[in-house]
């Protein structure tokens, strides 16, 4: 059931006025219902006490912020959305993944999804049918469309992290070789996504995975990646000029930043200003757009331009600070941020502790540990540049479920269940 739900993730919403609901949201609801039915049928407590506390911790801040929302509909919508992404879907994944074999199957499914989206993204770049970037329709966005330019970059990044983890694990040589090939292939669509946040998060997560796996392996993989980058960019000239300009812009965040970076800084400052007004509970769920103009400076533009990939030119309004930590801080205050970040921190600490144990032998699940910890590191870094929104958000909930399974499930410490 979980794998069937993954197939619906790349399907975008029907349009900007669809209310934000997607087929992926419906699929995630079915996964949660399936999990409930499974728990009732087996008549067993689905979560341990520790798992219930860690996954349920964000509910406190979310509920308080929902009560403080400007309207009942906004509070209800925000409550359902946050519970879906950070509580219900991760808990369902934790329950439905039976053993490491299931975990690896989901990880390979993420790689397959990334290869599909990445191949489509490369096709968009080559044929000029992608989203608009610097006046040309070349930005690789996969099936997510111009309204969700981060969707394909997120999926491909997850694929890179999973593939590298499986390549570093104690799997059979053919599986490790396949994982290495997948990771190298996915570098191309990741580069053509022109997503600076995804690049940074992937580099940090992969670096952490290499450090966890050992220095010798790290040097071998770095050599392979460097050689592939030289061949792809230097030899074939894949996106050389625009990629170099995009990479250079990362170092210009303080010195002559472009308008997108200026907008982001302005929204970050507005989010902090909102938090200062209501430091404990924030301004309420879904309330950032309502308070944005009264707290933002005149440097903020009216919106960002989107188009291409089958969509007409459109001014996309800036409705969030594009920083998950500041979004939670502004709307849920210190209470919500501490609860949500505390849940993530607990998963990180518990996951790393199990990773240290997994390095002890070939049958201890090192590949699963590297997948879970790598994905969580990627997500925590990416949250500094992005927040929730679009079909890829449901995929993020599935990823958080894999992280929770490794960090909190007793089954992560056991072998495969006989089929």
Task: Describe the protein's topology.
Elements: H1 2-7, H2 23-42, H3 49-56, H4 58-67, H5 72-96, H6 100-127, E1 131-133, E2 136-139, H7 149-168, H8 173-192, H9 196-213, H10 215-235, H11 240-250, H12 259-277, H13 288-295, E3 304-308, E4 311-316, H14 324-358, H15 366-382, H16 392-408
Antiparallel strand pairs: 1-2, 3-4
Gist of the model:
The protein has about 425 residues and is mainly alpha-helical.
The backbone outline, from C-alpha atoms, is globular
Question: What profile does the largest beta sheet have?
Answer: 2 strands, antiparallel
Q: What is the overall number of helices?
A: 16
Low-confidence spans: 14-19
Strand arrangement across the biggest beta sheet? 1-2
How big is the Rg? 21 Å
**Kindly, what is the distance between the CA atoms of the first and last residues, rounded to a whole number of angstroms?**
17 Å
The assigned structural class equals mainly alpha
Portion of residues within helices: 55-70%
Annotation, overall tally of beta strands: 4
What is the count of distinct domains? Answer: 1
Give the rounded overall mean pLDDT. 83
- Write down the secondary-structure element order: HHHHHHEEHHHHHHHEEHHH
- The percent range for strand residues is under 5%
3D structure, described in words:
The chain has 419 residues and is mainly alpha-helical. The protein has one domain. Helices cover 68% and strands 4% of the residues. It contains 16 helices and four strands. A two-stranded antiparallel ribbon has the order 1-2. Helix 6 packs across helix 7 and helix 15 packs across helix 16. 48% of the residues are buried. About 1% of the residues have low confidence.
């Amino acid at each position: 059931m979980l794998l069937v739900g993954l197939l619906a993730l790349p399907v975008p919403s029907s349009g900007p006025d669809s209310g934000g609901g997607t087929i992926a949201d419906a699929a995630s609801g079915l996964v949660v219902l399936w999990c409930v039915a499974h728990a009732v049928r087996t008549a067993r407590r689905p979560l341990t006490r520790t798992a219930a506390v860690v996954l349920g911790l964000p509910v406190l801040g979310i509920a308080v912020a929902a009560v403080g929302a400007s309207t009942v509909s906004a509070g209800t919508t925000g409550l359902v959305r946050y519970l879906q992404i950070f509580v219900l879907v991760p808990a369902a994944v934790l329950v439905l993944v039976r053993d490491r074999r299931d975990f690896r199957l989901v990880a390979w499914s993420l790689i397959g999804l990334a290869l599909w989206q990445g191949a489509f993204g490369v096709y968009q770049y080559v044929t000029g049918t992608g989203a608009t970037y610097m006046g040309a329709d070349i930005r690789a966005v996969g099936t997510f469309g111009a309204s969700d330019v981060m969707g394909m970059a997120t999926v491909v990044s997850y694929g890179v992290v999973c593939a590298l983890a499986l390549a570093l694990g104690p799997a059979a040589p053919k599986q490790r070789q396949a994982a290495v090939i997948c990771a190298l292939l996915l570098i191309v669509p990741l580069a053509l996504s022109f997503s600076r946040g995804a690049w940074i998060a992937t580099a940090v997560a992969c670096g952490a995975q290499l450090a966890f796996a050992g220095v010798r392996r790290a040097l071998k993989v770095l050599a392979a990646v460097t050689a592939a980058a030289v061949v792809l960019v230097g030899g074939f000239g894949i996106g050389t000029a625009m990629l170099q300009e995009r990479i250079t812009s990362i170092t210009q965040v303080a010195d002559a930043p472009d308008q997108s970076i200026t907008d982001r800084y302005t929204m970050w400052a507005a989010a902090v200003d909102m938090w200062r007004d209501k430091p404990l509970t924030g301004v309420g769920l879904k309330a950032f757009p309502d308070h944005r103009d009264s707290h933002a400076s005149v440097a903020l533009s009216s919106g960002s331009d989107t188009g291409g990939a089958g969509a007409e030119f459109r001014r996309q309004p800036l409705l969030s600070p594009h920083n998950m930590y500041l979004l939670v801080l502004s709307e849920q205050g210190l209470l919500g941020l501490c609860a949500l970040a505390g849940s993530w921190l607990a998963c990180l600490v518990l996951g790393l502790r199990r990773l240290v144990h997994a390095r002890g032998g070939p049958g201890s699940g090192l590949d699963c540990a590297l997948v879970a910890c790598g994905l969580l590191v990627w997500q925590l870094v990416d949250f500094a540049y992005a927040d929730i929104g679009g079909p890829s958000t449901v995929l993020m909930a599935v990823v958080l479920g894999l992280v929770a399974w490794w960090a909190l499930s007793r089954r992560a410490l056991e072998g495969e269940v006989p089929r």
